[in-house]
Specification:
The protein is mainly beta. It contains 3 helices and 13 strands. Strands 1, 2, 3, 4, 5, 6, 7, 8, 9, 10, 11, 12 and 13 form a 13-stranded antiparallel β-sheet that branches. The longest helix has 15 residues.
Length: 288
Amino acid sequence: MQKLRVPFNRIIFSIITVLNLSLSFNVQAMNELPEMSTSTDKPKWEAGAFVAVFNSPLYPGAAETQSKFLPVPFVIYRGKRLRVGEGGVIKAMAVDKPRFKVDLSLGAAFAANSDDAKVREGMPDLDFIFELGPEVSVMLNNTKESETWLNLQLRQVFSTDFSNIDDRGYIFQPEISYQGKHLFSDNDSFKATFSSLFATKKTHQYFYQVDEAFSTSERPAYLAKGGYLGTEATLVNRFKIRENISIFLSTKVGFYKGASNEQSPLFKKDLNYAIGLGLKWTLYQSNE
């Protein structure tokens, strides 16, 4: 197992916590939903507060869930060559074309206490997870009201307790993304995605392996393997209440039947779901 020492604990903690708050499922999906309009009618930068509450499973295929409340500051920058925080985390506009773009794909998941999951009692806690890698997107279709994209994402997975960073392998996530307007009302926009996840052995081991030291009569030892992790469908809706205030509703359903490690004693449910509610409030923006 590769480990990286973190010399500036508090700095790393602050950076990763912001990523965590910004990129965990509900906040990530909400914050990445772009306006279906050109950037010329938007300010060059804006900043404000994003507040979200959500409930999600402890890990894919888990029987238990956890709830979180997230107050997060945000900054959006819309430059000619670089954009931050809109339609992606960091986007290089030099390679952004009408039907093709290259972006940075990020993901994160909160730490989970093993005592909160009956099946994991006595095992090590699951640390905070963050993922980082490239994303290549190709537009499949676009109209005045909608866009359809094929997104190919490859991310390296890390876990951390904020003193060490551990390598947890790789995730490959091909995704179909559809975004449009007016699903429920005249002032809403939405984004729906459908994706499959494939992960290396290290990633699966983190969630599903049971070493001999932690085996019991009800939790036999299990050696995890790489492969298919699951399929996820996500729907995010944004309702613009005022020019500077938007409300987000987020739902995700995970289908894990047929996953490579569904025989693990830690794998308990073929179907998981997560729900979230968020509010974005722009407090400051540029005049340009």
